[in-house]
Amino acid sequence: MKKIKFIYNPFSGDGVVTKNLDTIISKYQAKGYTIIPFRISTEQNLEETFSDIDSSYHHILGAGGDGTINQIINLMKEKNLDIPLAILPVGTANDFAKYIGMPADIGEACNKILSGEIREIDLGKANDKYFINVFSFGLFTDISQKTPTHQKNTLGKLAYYINGIKELPSLKKLDIKVTSDEFSYEGNALIFFTFNGRTAGNINISYKSEINDGLLDVIIVKGENILSTFLSLFEFLKLEHLEEPKDIIHFKSSDFVVKYLDSSLNSDIDGEVGPKSPVHISCIKNGLKIIY
């Protein structure tokens, strides 16, 4: 029987994966796979589960939110594992899983994986950390980190809008410098995004992004003043912010450097803490095998 390494986070999405363990195992066994599980916990290092993965494994099945998937991918790259990854969306946002069309229902998601294809997709890299969906810093990163998990679970993307409006009175513009062959910018930024996927916090921000074009989509919200920022928020809601951008810069690049002056500022990669400035960001074409 073909082996599957099943890595799951029992705390993601109010423990939905633990309620569906029998469904997952039965679906895989019916297709002739042997599940080798690893439960993520504070007592065991996630790195331990990669020690026995070899050519006898067909793929890794990751069950968790965007942060869990990010950790798995970074360890796969660190261990030079070139086997496919499948994603069960059991976290709060599940941005990348939704982009590739993974159903929210666990049984349906298993069916999609088991009947899916192995495809090569692009992967982002920020200094020495990899990301599958988005690298960001600025207002959105602050809002994401300040929004309580229970609020995200109950309100979805509305929670981000509510908390974003709360933060508007204390807007903090950043001095940044972006250098690439395609485009360079030096000036103010309220929010900075680099997308491989399309959504962040379930908000469809980078709707022109593709995961197989060898390019990352850079979006900078300048935030010149309160009025222009409010107008930009309405354009986000209407999905028109990349069509006639008033306060937004959008370009595609495979390799660039971004610097910001605030040394205390945290960046975010797929829900995990990212590197500090300066950050060299690149796109690794066909850098990851995904089943969907």
From TrEMBL:
Q: Fetch the Gene3D superfamilies from UniProt.
A: 2.60.200.40, Probable inorganic polyphosphate/atp-NAD kinase, domain 1
Q: What is this protein called?
A: Lipid kinase
Q: Does the keyword Signal apply?
A: no
Q: Where is the DAGKc domain?
A: 1-130
Question: Matching Pfam families, A to Z?
Answer: DAGK_cat (PF00781), YegS_C (PF19279)
State one molecular function term (GO).
Answer: kinase activity
Required co-factors: Mg(2+)
Organism name: Fusobacterium mortiferum ATCC 9817
Does the record bear DNA-binding in its keywords? no
Which NCBIfam families has this protein been placed in?
Answer: PRK13059.1, YegS/Rv2252/BmrU family lipid kinase
Q: What keywords does the record list, in alphabetical order?
A: ATP-binding, Kinase, Lipid biosynthesis, Lipid metabolism, Magnesium, Metal-binding, Nucleotide-binding, Phospholipid biosynthesis, Phospholipid metabolism, Transferase
